Write a sequence for this structure.
């Protein structure tokens, strides 16, 4: 395995070392607290925080819920401290946990709170973005998650299948149907090409 | 579209305040709550993302061994079937034709008619020998038997290819026809999508027009998935099962 480590950037180098090389140096405490655990959580948040938050937001449409999912994902990482083969594996693990926690949260809440992103887009008068977000929001969860992971995160269908625990054929089929449905919604409701 | 989606998502970021809040919560986490985050090891994820495990040397070697064995078996079947089986034509035609032409030549020589019967018989004998050696067995006297030999060889090839190749080698209309037979007269195919190596058929109720299920056929490996549109339940089978039913 070859990892292109940007040696000139001490911060990123440290992330790689922390994630892939020296898991054992973080003392495993019952509380999960402590300097090292906190430092590790901060490093993961700096590297993957935005991605996890966006993925959670794509399910929940609510910033405070998404923030809690980010927090829970980091805690799950610190408690389990899995060994990763490479960066893609680390990212996939965090996404799988965040996705499962988000789905549990939707089931627990029973409904979605108000959509702050939509309000922001409306306030900024960005109609085209508003249309797209509205259309994406209307998709069922299983379509929306593959759209997000494929287009925003750039995972392959095989990787998405592994993250979501589905067959690759199913992911490809969901992706195809999601695109079709998105097109229909945009065309019907907004006459948007 | 994806550009616009990315533009939207760029608005969702971890702010400094959020970062501080999350880290504070993590450092003050309750041990009882932490116990709920214990998870089982994710073997499937590790397999999918570990490049080393994806193509292990043992798998490559096993694949090569299987390929060699199949080539060997196919070779044995191709070259030995006519000789091994007395009921098939190759060997028998060769033997009979050779005997017949040799007898003819002998008789013709005996009666002194070398210009006509003897030469013809010899020519026949040469032709038959050549044909039998090539495994084609298209000698004049052994034509029908030769065709039988061809069929035997084809059948052997077919059965070999069935064992190694699970792909669906039919055209889309043929596949569609099989799906139509499978779903019966109460349902119709209301939509067809073609992906790379895959066909997706949307099956609807003839009476109500409601979508009943999605049938996904992966032509590269012959696998079939039938998803119930309402419950999302998926049943898996092979294309052969689909065709047989």
């Amino acid at each position: 395995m070859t990892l292109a480590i940007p040696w000139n950037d001490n911060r990123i180098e440290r992330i790689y070392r922390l994630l892939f090389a020296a898991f054992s140096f973080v003392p495993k405490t019952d509380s999960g607290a402590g300097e090292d655990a906190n430092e590790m959580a901060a490093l993961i948040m700096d590297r993957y925080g935005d991605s996890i938050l966006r993925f959670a937001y794509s399910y929940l449409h609510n910033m405070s819920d998404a923030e809690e999912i980010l927090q829970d994902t980091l805690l799950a990482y610190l408690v389990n401290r899995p060994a990763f083969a490479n960066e893609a594996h680390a990212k996939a693990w965090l996404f799988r946990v965040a996705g499962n926690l988000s789905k549990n949260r939707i089931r627990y809440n029973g409904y979605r709170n108000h959509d702050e992103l939509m309000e922001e887009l409306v306030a900024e008068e960005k109609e085209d973005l508003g249309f797209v977000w509205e259309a994406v929001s209307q998709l069922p969860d299983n379509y929306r998650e593959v759209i997000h992971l494929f287009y925003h995160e750039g995972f392959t269908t095989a990787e998405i299948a592994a993250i979501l625990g589905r067959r690759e054929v199913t992911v490809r089929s969901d992706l195809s149907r999601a695109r079709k449905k998105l097109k229909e919604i945009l065309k019907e409701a907004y006459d948007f090409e | 579209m994806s550009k616009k989606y990315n533009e939207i998502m760029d608005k969702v970021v971890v702010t400094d305040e959020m970062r501080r809040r999350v880290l504070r919560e993590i450092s003050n986490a309750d041990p009882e709550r932490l116990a709920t985050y214990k998870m089982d090891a994710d073997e499937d994820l590790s397999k999918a993302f570990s490049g080393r495990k994806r193509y292990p040397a043992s798998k490559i070697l096993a694949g090569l061994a299987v390929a060699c064995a199949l080539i060997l078996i196919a070779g044995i079947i191709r070259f030995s079937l006519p000789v091994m089986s007395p009921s098939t034509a190759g060997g028998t035609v060769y033997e009979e034709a050779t005997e017949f032409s040799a007898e003819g030549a002998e008789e013709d020589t005996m009666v002194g008619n070398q210009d006509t019967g003897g030469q013809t018989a010899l020519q026949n004998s040469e032709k038959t020998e050549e044909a039998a050696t090539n495994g084609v067995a298209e000698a004049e006297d052994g034509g029908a038997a030769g065709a039988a030999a061809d069929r035997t060889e084809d059948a052997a090839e077919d059965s070999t290819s069935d064992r190694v190749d699970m792909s669906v080698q039919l055209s889309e209309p043929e596949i569609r026809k099989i799906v139509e037979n499978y779903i019966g007269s109460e349902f119709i195919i209301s939509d067809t999508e073609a992906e790379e190596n895959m066909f997706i058929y949307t099956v609807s109720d003839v009476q109500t027009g409601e979508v009943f299920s999605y049938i996904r056929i992966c032509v590269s490996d012959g696998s079939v998935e039938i998803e119930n549109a309402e419950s999302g339940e998926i049943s898996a089978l092979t294309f052969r099962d689909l065709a047989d039913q």
Q: What stands out?
A: Residues 105 and 118 of chain B are 4 Å apart (CA to CA). The radius of gyration of chain B is 33 Å. DSSP finds eleven helices and five strands in chain B. The beta strands of chain B are 187-195, 198-205, 211-218, 223-228, 234-238.
